[in-house]
């Protein structure tokens, strides 16, 4: 499939934006000005001002002399870049590859996207009309190269869509400035009488290089397709993405459910063919009012099961606010992992954590209470108890060391030991009573001590002497004394046994 590009030109970017916030400016010619080299110059002119003969780069004094009712506004530094970024992010609904083309345009890689809108003509019409409805004077063109699309969008007078392989035939009648050349080169070409691209397009490259430099040939080659042009996307695209435009805005939960299922069928088919499974999927809904709403799901292990992922999204549909309706759905698998082919055998025993049904159950529970509330822990190589466990990244993660079973360890370990008050017969004995959170606990029996030395290579401090104690109600706790008994030690509660 040949590459296809769209160039979008905002002819009055800043002045259009100003008129959106101040409608009264539509009735008068106005310009934006900024100091430059000890003079005030025009940086942007409205459509009415241009009709009077005023243009960007003109001295403000000359502009005021042309018309008596000219309104002059101070330019906002960097506003063009911010507006282009906002418009570029808006265009991502039509293609994931959007590049800002300063000072007044965007370049879109639309390869494989136009068919979703019924072809390139419907695609271009959709984007241009939407941008114009937002208040921006817009022109656009489509071609095999970004350079040719840029040239036709700004200087073309016939069709805005150049058929594949025909960019060479669309350029000859355009001025040299359509090649994105430096002003000095444009001026030199004009002086030599080369006022169209066709007047030099067939000249020997050696002569063109000698007279106009390497950049001139590069720009010409980029427009014709003989030189590659690398575009830096505004947002790095997600590799696993599916789009679904809507003929009519979707306002109901049933419509959203149908859209999700259709997108998941396409996404999972691709994931399955590549041996991948989705760990995190985000649904982006572009509404008619221009706002973006989204919902996301995550899984404990990679999955390309349409039914399972649909059930997870069913829990999120109620959170999607449709307002006037959704015109485009975008599904992105932002995190994927390799998935092994399941081999079902009659003699297969208990699969444990590898059981697909267990992973799907955990995903459904996570969808209701939140994935952050479901945890799995693995042992870590540390003596200090609070460092001896770590959260697992997935169900498939294998521990690097085994759990310690030669000593009693609590089922619930507090992330940080909590201070308690104790009373004991002798300083080095286990406590007879302790007070925790204002409540008194009588100790019926105790086991210990177990001394755990501090990891001196990580921090400094005293050792701990741990006791497993049981109160008169049968509840068991893990307590420790910090330091030697003859040094006014402190006591702490660190865990609860089952």
UniProtKB/TrEMBL annotation:
Query: What keywords are annotated for this sequence in UniProt?
Result: DNA damage
Query: Where would I find the UmuC domain in this sequence?
Result: 9-152
Q: Where is the signal peptide?
A: none
Q: Which Pfam families match?
A: IMS (PF00817)
Entries under SUPFAM superfamilies matching the protein:
DNA/RNA polymerases
- GO biological process assignments: DNA repair
Superkingdom of origin organism: Bacteria
Give the family this protein belongs to, as stated in its UniProt record.
Answer: Belongs to the DNA polymerase type-Y family.
Q: What is this protein called?
A: DNA polymerase Y family protein
Record organism: Mucilaginibacter hurinus
